[in-house]
């Protein structure tokens, strides 16, 4: 048995005991519970040396994410990367230069934002994954840092003023439910309140003269509003004058906005009069409104404007593939950009002079790294080259984009990683969270391990309700249409059965957060067609979830799932919840949870574990981390989790002849 973290799994017996279906009804299974450090493990089997050794290199991969320029381009960049157990802030002085670590904490640093002059930066971190982020200020000249938020509330969306003397951010400090916008001062002066209304509010941009602040009022994925706060006009309550910008008759979703650098107008990204998010410009008085990407039939993302206002950069999400574009704002024409590998671009940042654009790039064969180029040049500079555990990432399996028709002939996209090996391959269906998120063809060493080392083919679908395919597609799972997305998984199972290279008798479903709900729901609907399920921080009962999720999230989630305080909706939500239908699950399950999860509380996992075990002695592995939240952010915890997933997949999908399971194999469809 391996030492270190693998030793946490010593002495545990297999959950998949050899019992018949009839005997299981009367069996009183004794749960094998071990607490080691911050981990609680129930019924997980020991991890053999061979598994730990095979997965080790795949778990040593790293990534580097752009935080921004440090003032002038010659001062270098701030990035986030992990050299120990958690991601921390580093400085890189030149392309492919040494990474100099600046922050050293047991908890990961979740975000960082350099000041306009490059002499300092703001950063956020939470405690044990509770997502109550606190803002700190780091002085690069001294290496000292200090807390600048209240130490209790949730604080996000940091934004420096153009002068760099103040910063805006969102906070729940007033009542723990609504997110207000405030302006903080480094000299310790009292906070300046900007918005103090119900709902979720965030700062987007200071005007060039710092006298106005552009705000987003987020109502739901389908609706948001823009406001301009005039910081020079303060009412008797001490709040600035708020004016609605671009009021619309129908609900519109704004995803981004920036002031023009002359201060006379605003560039926005919204789905107004379109199925997709488009780039628009409009003057503050409502004149000169025009669409700048009217010929783009995909979502626009990542709006950024150079400080001098000469260039505007944005990303087109073309069927999950990023297309980076830069517009000359004087001519309105696109300028040449370097040819990028097929992948996903995030985090656009112009340097102070507006001559260089930096960004993060991820592809199926390369972890996230930081790149830049000079505007007008096609030469790409690489700032970081992240390690891949000694693996040749250029040989990683690239996914194919496939489509399948669902029950109502909706065309659903999925990324398909073909497993290595002869004969029909077992299948893992991996479902993203959100639900309004999008699975992308990004670097994933664990999928590579599943496909290459275990011979498992992996399908990653974007079921209805996913973003990136237009607002009509996004709304197809709303309200009482919730289970239509689950029916998409049924259609995918039908598609798998028609592929001669796939084994429809050996399929496992897996997902996190909303994907965890989809996993549990798929198990209740298609139990006889699945070999098992892996649920990570998933919703098991919509009513208890909405009751117990953090106050600042409840109304936002009600907008997506429905209001459980309405008797009819409550009854519907109860009826479709996996917990209500848990008796249908007879296949093995692996459930994973963070104790401090503010989104999907720990109770969601534990009530599902208890119910499945009570039903016919159902087999469940359960892994809980006391120092994690909505997912595992610490590498040591992730390593244990990843190895347990490999063990589950080997027993349920791969080495099926070596293990007896609770039920007979799934029948052929």
UniProtKB/TrEMBL annotation:
<dbReference type="GO" id="GO:0004252">
    <property type="term" value="F:serine-type endopeptidase activity"/>
</dbReference>
<dbReference type="InterPro" id="IPR002470">
    <property type="entry name" value="Peptidase_S9A"/>
</dbReference>
<dbReference type="GO" id="GO:0006508">
    <property type="term" value="P:proteolysis"/>
</dbReference>
<feature type="domain" description="Peptidase S9 prolyl oligopeptidase catalytic">
    <location>
        <begin position="449"/>
        <end position="653"/>
    </location>
</feature>
<dbReference type="InterPro" id="IPR001375">
    <property type="entry name" value="Peptidase_S9_cat"/>
</dbReference>
<feature type="domain" description="Peptidase S9A N-terminal">
    <location>
        <begin position="114"/>
        <end position="382"/>
    </location>
</feature>
<keyword id="KW-0378">Hydrolase</keyword>
<keyword id="KW-0732">Signal</keyword>
<keyword id="KW-0645">Protease</keyword>
<dbReference type="InterPro" id="IPR029058">
    <property type="entry name" value="AB_hydrolase_fold"/>
</dbReference>
<keyword id="KW-0720">Serine protease</keyword>
<dbReference type="Pfam" id="PF00326">
    <property type="entry name" value="Peptidase_S9"/>
</dbReference>
<dbReference type="InterPro" id="IPR023302">
    <property type="entry name" value="Pept_S9A_N"/>
</dbReference>
<protein>
    <recommendedName>
        <fullName>Peptidase S9 prolyl oligopeptidase catalytic domain-containing protein</fullName>
    </recommendedName>
</protein>
<dbReference type="InterPro" id="IPR011042">
    <property type="entry name" value="6-blade_b-propeller_TolB-like"/>
</dbReference>
<dbReference type="Pfam" id="PF02897">
    <property type="entry name" value="Peptidase_S9_N"/>
</dbReference>
<feature type="signal peptide">
    <location>
        <begin position="1"/>
        <end position="23"/>
    </location>
</feature>
């Amino acid at each position: 048995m391996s030492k270190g973290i693998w030793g946490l799994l010593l002495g545990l017996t297999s959950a998949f005991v050899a019992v018949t279906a009839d005997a299981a009804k009367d069996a009183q299974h004794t749960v094998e519970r071990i607490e080691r450090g911050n981990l609680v493990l129930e019924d997980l089997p020991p991890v053999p040396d061979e598994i730990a050794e095979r997965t080790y290199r795949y778990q040593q991969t790293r990534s580097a994410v752009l935080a921004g320029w440090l003032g002038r381009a010659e001062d270098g960049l701030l990035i986030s990367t992990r050299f120990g157990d958690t991601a921390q802030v580093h400085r890189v002085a030149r392309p492919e230069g040494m990474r100099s670590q600046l922050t050293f904490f047991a908890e990961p640093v979740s975000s960082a934002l350099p000041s306009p002059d490059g002499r300092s930066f703001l950063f956020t971190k939470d405690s044990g994954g509770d997502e109550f982020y606190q803002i700190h200020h780091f002085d690069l000249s001294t290496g000292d840092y200090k807390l600048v938020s209240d130490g209790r509330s949730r604080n996000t969306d940091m934004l420096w003023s153009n002068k760099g003397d103040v910063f805006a951010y969102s906070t729940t400090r007033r009542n723990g439910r609504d997110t207000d916008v405030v302006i903080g001062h480094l000299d310790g002066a009292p906070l300046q309140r900007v918005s103090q209304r119900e709902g979720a509010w965030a700062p987007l941009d200071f005007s060039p003269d710092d006298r106005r602040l552009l705000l987003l009022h987020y109502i739901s994925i389908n609706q948001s509003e823009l406001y301009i706060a005039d910081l020079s006009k303060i009412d008797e309550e001490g709040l600035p004058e708020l004016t609605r910008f671009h009021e619309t008759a129908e609900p519109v979703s704004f995803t981004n906005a920036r002031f023009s650098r002359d201060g006379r107008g605003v560039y926005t990204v919204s789905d107004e009069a379109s199925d997709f998010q488009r780039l628009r410009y409009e003057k503050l008085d409502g004149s000169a409104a025009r669409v700048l990407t009217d010929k783009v039939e995909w979502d626009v993302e990542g709006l950024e404007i150079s400080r001098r206002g000469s260039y505007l950069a944005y990303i087109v999400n073309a069927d999950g593939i990023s297309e980076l574009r830069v517009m000359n704002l004087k001519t309105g024409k696109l300028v040449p950009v370097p040819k990028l590998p097929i992948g996903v671009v995030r985090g656009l940042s112009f340097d102070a002079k507006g001559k260089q654009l930096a960004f993060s790039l991820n592809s199926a064969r390369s972890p996230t790294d930081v790149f830049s180029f000079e505007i007008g040049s096609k030469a790409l500079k690489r700032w970081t080259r992240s390690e891949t555990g000694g693996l040749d990432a250029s040989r990683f399996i690239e996914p194919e984009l496939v489509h399948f028709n669902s029950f109502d002939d909706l065309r659903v996209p999925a990324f398909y990683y073909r497993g290595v090996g002869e004969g029909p391959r077992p299948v893992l269906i991996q479902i993203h969270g959100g639900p309004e998120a999008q699975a992308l063809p990004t670097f994933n060493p664990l999928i590579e391990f599943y496909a290459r080392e275990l011979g498992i083919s992996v399908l990653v679908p974007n079921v209805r309700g996913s973003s990136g395919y237009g607002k009509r597609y996004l709304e197809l799972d709303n309200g009482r249409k919730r289970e239509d997305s689950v029916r998409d998984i049924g259609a995918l199972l039908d598609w798998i059965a028609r592929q001669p290279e796939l084994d429809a008798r050996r399929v496992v479903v897996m997902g996190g957060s909303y994907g965890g709900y989809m996993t549990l729901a798929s198990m209740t609907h298609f139990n006889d067609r699945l070999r098992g399920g892996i649920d990570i921080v998933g919703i098991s009962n919509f009513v208890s979830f909405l009751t117990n999720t953090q106050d600042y999230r409840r109304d936002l989630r009600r907008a997506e799932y429905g209001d459980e305080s309405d008797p009819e909706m409550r009854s519907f939500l109860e009826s479709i919840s996996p917990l209500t239908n848990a008796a249908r699950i007879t296949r093995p399950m692996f459930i994973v949870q963070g104790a401090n999860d503010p989104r999907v509380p720990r109770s969601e996992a534990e009530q599902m574990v208890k119910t499945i075990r009570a039903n016919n002695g159902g087999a469940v592995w359960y892994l809980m981390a006391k120092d994690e939240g909505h997912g595992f952010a610490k590498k040591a915890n992730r390593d244990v989790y990843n190895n347990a997933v490999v063990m589950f997949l080997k027993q349920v999908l791969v080495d099926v002849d070596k293990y007896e399971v609770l039920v007979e194999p799934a029948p052929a469809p």
